[in-house]
Amino acid sequence: MKVDVLLGLQWGDEGKGKIVDVLTPEYDIIARFQGGPNAGHTLEFEGIKHVLHTIPSGIFRDSVLNIVGNGVVIDPVIFQKELEKLAPFNINIKERLLISKKAHLILPTHRLLDQASEAAKGTNKIGSTLKGIGPTYMDKTGRNGLRVGDIFMDNFKAKYDALVEKHIGILNHHEGFEYDLAELEGPWMEGIETLRALTAIDSEQFLNDAMKAGKKVLAEGAQGTMLDIDFGTYPFVTSSNTVTAGTCTGLGVAPTKIGNVIGIFKAYCTRVGSGPFPTELDNAEGEKIRKEGNEFGATTGRPRRCGWIDLPQLKYAIMVNGVTELSMMKSDVLDNFDTIKVCTHYLINGEKVEHFPFDIIDVDLVPVYEEIKGWNTDLTKLTSFNDAPQELKDYVKYLEQKLEVPVTVVSVGPDRKQTLSNK
Ligand code: GDP
Ligand code: IMO
Ligand code: MG
Q1: Could you tell me if the CB of 329 is within 6 A of ligand 2?
Q2: Active site residue 150
Q3: Which residues contact 27 (CB under 8 A, 6 or more apart)?
């Protein structure tokens, strides 16, 4: 069996959590392969809204295993809080949630380093979620990190102390940066105890054995392609590979084992944090999208920047991920627009550019739009794509033709049920 991959094609928050939840009944295992609690994946069903940060979005479905892969970074404090929120749902966490021994740990000092680094950058800050993601991945590639498997070793405390000492040395260089480490360490050590009581495994072996035995696996991406450390809008990105290739390194599955790649995008576009966003609307139209789409971060509550869909950007994301099918999310947010705009290309320093180039920051970039007729209909009650207004069908057809990939799912609301198949 092959691993199917589901990931975001824009700057995150495309609605990945919702679609993972919708697709979970088709799978035996859902596995996160990168990122950490910078992610906020929202699921809605039976009138309840759930936000997951580290735990895969298959956790609410019976008889599905959920794996936190080696490519993920875990904050034991946030992890414990997530588990506490799941308590009322009587999920057998020890059996249904498996954690890679190779996943790296976010230390309290990683969070402090994130804060100190962002503060030092001033107006050039990344707009990080301040969860310690960057510093943790730096320690991973710098070969200093602590991993889940280490917490079962006798020398864990000594390793922890040595890394913290190193971090304090760096923090001391940040003049005026104040912190109370002792206050942060108590809950962190408690979280470590919680982790120790869970099931830590060699997840790459487990996954490959499961696939050999015919189990179906869905890899759940976090963030989005434009936040990828290599292919995103660097340096305004996260610190992991959010693209399909990240599945191979973040789960230990071979490139030849990748199956379908499901790309998730909004019917428009958003970004939270700093960095370039060619089709951003800094006007009443953008404000309207933010209001209708309730575009406020699931992790930090920050208002998301809003704009129109960007074809050069989406084509680029489809290319680097090898996307085989698309899910268009939040279509209902455009219910009250007479016209919808689609950026077909850019004018960069006056020249027509149809791909997503290296530099979009220090240039004069003008997005060029095509106007599409809006549907001006409430989509949220639709139960079949056949019954959708012609204008929505035309919008989907237009995108399929431009992007050369079928749009197999159209989402018309946050609830599990508000999901239309277009297969
Ligand atoms: P993720 O990080 O990609 O999982 O996305 P988030 O959960 O951060 O953000 C998506 C937001 O949009 C959440 O609040 C979802 O409940 C909501 N959502 C998902 N699909 C739809 C949709 O089709 N329509 C509307 N109105 N909201 C949606
Ligand atoms: P999900 O999985 C949207 C953004 C941050 C910041 C940049 C770096 O919910 O789609 P980091 O904390 O990684 O150092 O932040 O990346 N960012 C996200 N934006 N959705 C996310 O995750 C994000 N995770 C990080 O806002 O601009
Ligand atoms: Mg999110």
Answers
A1: no
A2: no
A3: 4, 58, 64, 216, 217, 218
